[in-house]
């Protein structure tokens, strides 16, 4: 029997929505009932241009036939198989394909279900790796101010977004934070990587001196910080972090949940910046956002540290019921095929200069105090209303939706990350509409 799908349910109370002003939303709901390629369809039948790839995840656009058909076939053939002491071929095939596109030196895949779980997994792997090598005192984790690493306890502990942390108690112990890299006084309106700020990586030496290198397991950073408002790494910054972590035997984790799978014009940010971490956390674009799946990618050194015990023993007591789920694996393979067949990473790199020029055309727009960009990502920072943080950007979000474009806001920053299939006229529509929205804001 078919489900009775009403455009707007008559009772919105039961669903406690995540990261949402629930009372505001339920008083005037914004319902999406369909999607295709670059557009959502609203309950009222309007077309809304997707300027955010959903939540940074629908890199190939929406409802792509190859992906949806792969899911349907797999659901009819093998709906679920356990990954504990059992396997199914498609999970291994997807892992091989991920490694084929990963940076040279990354050789293994550990499946999760989300970016948050990928981060938790990577943090656990880092601590367990040192213990397996006889350095069990290395338990300290280093994140970064304004970092976003999901919403589980480990992720918000190493993360540095205040509102994601302050309601949840003392969090994990043994965590410290590097300074963020946002230097508006020196780097405002930078195109691509800003010139100033590589020296901020040197603060890791201060943290090492404070705690002792022998106590530090890992440093985790986003190569490009996304959810905090698009902070691009200064020239030389990531290279310095890599050099310092290597010097002290500390693992470096790149959180590539946003930057992975083409967002910067390369498969991963590690390739874009030519900096090889020890682990990379992924999700979102892995399955085009169609079905939950994440993965931690590791070097052979990290993996092999666990493989010294008896062959009949479990090497790592960690995993999830849905690790390597068959339907998610099928979606992942189909997604990677769409990326390859349509050369979407190369397409991103080709349109990135046009995107850069378009977003920086807002430099003189009303309320704009900074513009930042890389690949198909942009952050438009607005001057806040005194005493009312976030209000102006949220008003822009609501007005943009009314005018037919979807943007994201964090604080008083507008973030955009459209699907990699975006065309130049759609770039123009997105930015022209946003200019109109900003011109009408108080």
Structural class: alpha/beta
**In which range does the helix fraction lie?**
25-40%
CATH superfamily of the largest domain, by name, is Type I PLP-dependent aspartate aminotransferase-like (Major domain)
CATH uppermost class of the largest domain: Alpha Beta
Corresponding CATH architecture of the largest domain:
3-Layer(aba) Sandwich
Low-confidence stretches are none
Distance between the termini: 50 Å
CATH topology of the largest domain: Aspartate Aminotransferase, domain 2
Estimate the global geometry from the Cα principal axes: globular
Strand order of the largest sheet: 4-10-9-8-7-5-6
Helix segment count?
Answer: 16
Which radius of gyration do the C-alpha atoms yield? Answer: 22 Å
Main sheet characteristics? 7 strands, mixed
User: What is the count of β-strands?
Assistant: 15
Q: Work out the strand percent.
A: 15-25%
GO molecular function: adenosylmethionine-8-amino-7-oxononanoate transaminase activity; pyridoxal phosphate binding
InterPro entries: Aminotrans_3 (IPR005814), Aminotrans_3_PPA_site (IPR049704), PyrdxlP-dep_Trfase (IPR015424), PyrdxlP-dep_Trfase_major (IPR015421), PyrdxlP-dep_Trfase_small (IPR015422)
Keywords: Aminotransferase, Pyridoxal phosphate, Transferase
Family: Belongs to the class-III pyridoxal-phosphate-dependent aminotransferase family.
């Amino acid at each position: 029997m078919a489900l009775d799908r009403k455009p707007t349910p008559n009772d919105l109370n039961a669903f406690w929505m995540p990261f949402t002003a629930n009372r505001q939303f339920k008083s005037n709901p914004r319902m999406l009932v369909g999607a295709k390629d670059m557009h959502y369809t609203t309950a009222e039948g309007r077309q809304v241009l997707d300027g955010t790839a959903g939540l940074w995840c629908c890199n190939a656009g929406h409802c792509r036939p190859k992906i949806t058909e792969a899911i349907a076939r797999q659901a009819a053939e093998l709906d679920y198989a356990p990954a504990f002491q059992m396997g199914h071929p498609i999970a291994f095939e997807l892992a091989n394909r991920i490694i084929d596109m990963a940076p040279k030196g990354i050789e293994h895949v550990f499946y999760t279900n989300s970016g948050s779980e990928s981060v938790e997994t990577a943090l656990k792997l880092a601590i367990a790796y040192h213990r397996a090598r006889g350095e069990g005192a290395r338990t300290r984790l280093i994140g970064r101010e304004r970092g976003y690493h999901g919403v589980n306890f480990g992720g918000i502990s190493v993360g540095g977004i205040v509102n994601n942390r302050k309601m949840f108690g003392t969090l994990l112990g043994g965590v410290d934070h590097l300074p963020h890299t946002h230097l508006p006084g020196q780097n405002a309106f930078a195109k691509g990587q800003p010139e100033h700020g590589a020296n901020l990586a040197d603060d890791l030496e201060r943290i090492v001196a404070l705690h002792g290198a022998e106590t530090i397991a890992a440093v985790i950073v986003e190569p490009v910080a996304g959810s905090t408002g698009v902070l691009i790494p200064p020239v030389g910054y990531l290279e310095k972090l890599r050099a310092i972590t290597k010097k002290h035997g500390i693992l470096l984790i790149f959180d590539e949940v946003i930057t992975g799978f083409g967002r910067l014009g390369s498969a991963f940010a590690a390739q874009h910046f030519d900096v090889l971490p020890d682990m990379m956390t992924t999700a979102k674009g892995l399955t085009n956002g169609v079905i939950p799946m994440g993965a931690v990618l590791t070097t052979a050194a990290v993996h092999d540290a666990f493989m010294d015990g008896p062959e009949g023993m479990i090497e790592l007591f960690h995993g999830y019921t849905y690790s390597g789920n068959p339907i998610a694996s099928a979606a992942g393979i189909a997604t990677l095929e769409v990326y390859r067949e349509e050369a979407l990473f190369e397409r991103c790199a080709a349109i990135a200069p046009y995107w850069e020029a378009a977003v920086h055309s807002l430099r003189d727009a009303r309320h704009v105090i900074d513009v930042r960009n890389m690949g198909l990502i942009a952050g438009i920072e607005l001057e806040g209303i005194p005493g009312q943080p976030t209000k102006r950007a949220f008003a822009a979000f609501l007005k943009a939706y009314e005018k037919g474009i979807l943007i994201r806001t964090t604080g008083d920053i507008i973030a955009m990350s459209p699907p990699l299939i975006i065309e130049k006229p759609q770039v123009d529509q997105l930015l022209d509409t946003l200019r109109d929205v900003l011109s009408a804001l108080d």
